[in-house]
Design goal:
single chain, 4-stranded mixed beta sheet, 4 helices, 34% helix
Length: 173
C-alpha cells in the first residue's frame, strides 16, 4: 500500500517509516522498543490505530489509540483555543491642534474605553492650512495625551509626521 498523499498531522499505522519504535499501549503502559510491523499488528489486534507521537525521538515513540477520536479531540482543542483568542483592533481618534478642553475630555474618555477593551489607539492630529507652520502646538497636544494616558498605556509609535498629519500609536500596558 503506497504512503498516503502529503497530509498534515502525525503518521498513522503503515505510514510510520522507522523500522523500530518505542511502543505505548492503549492503557498508557510503556511496552518497550520493537519493530514497527509488530507494533502495527498489536494495534490492529485490539482494533485501534498506531499513532506516531514523537517522530524526532530515537527511536520514535508511538501509541495505540483510536485515530478518529484523536483527530476529534485535536479539532476540539483548536476550536477552544480559537474562542479564547482576542483580536486586537486599532481604533483611531482624530484631534486638531486647537482642540477645545471639553472635546479633549470626550476624546480621552473614548481612548480610555478602547484601551480597557484591549485595543490599540491611533491618535491622528490633522493640520489644516497655516497650522502647518505651528507643528509645535500639535506636538504639545500629543504630549498632553501621552501624559494623561501614561498610567494605562505605553507608546508603541512615537509622534511622527505623515503629510499634513501627525500620528502616534498607544497600546495597553
Amino acid at each position: 500500500m503506497p504512503a498516503s498523499p502529503n497530509r498534515d498531522g502525525p503518521r498513522v499505522n503503515e505510514d510510520i517509516r522507522s523500522p523500530t519504535v518505542r511502543l505505548i499501549d492503549e492503557e498508557g503502559e510503556m511496552q518497550g522498543v520493537m519493530s514497527a510491523r509488530e507494533a502495527v499488528q498489536r494495534a490492529y489486534a485490539v482494533g485501534l490505530d498506531l499513532l506516531e507521537i514523537s517522530p524526532n525521538a530515537e527511536p520514535p515513540v508511538v501509541k495505540i489509540l483510536d485515530f478518529g477520536k484523536f483527530k476529534y479531540e485535536q479539532q476540539k482543542k483548536k476550536n477552544e483555543a480559537k474562542k479564547k483568542q482576542k483580536v486586537i483592533e486599532i481604533k483611531e481618534i482624530k484631534v486638531r491642534p486647537n482642540i477645545d478642553e471639553n472635546d479633549y475630555q470626550v476624546k480621552m474618555r473614548a481612548m480610555k474605553t478602547f484601551i480597557e477593551d484591549g485595543d490599540k489607539v491611533k491618535v491622528t492630529l490633522r493640520f489644516r492650512g497655516r497650522e502647518m507652520a505651528h507643528q509645535d502646538i500639535g506636538i504639545k497636544v500629543l504630549e498632553r495625551i501621552r501624559g494623561d494616558m501614561d498610567a494605562t498605556t505605553k507608546v508603541e509609535q512615537m509622534p511622527r509626521m505623515e503629510n499634513r498629519q501627525m500620528i502616534m500609536v498607544l497600546t495597553p500596558r
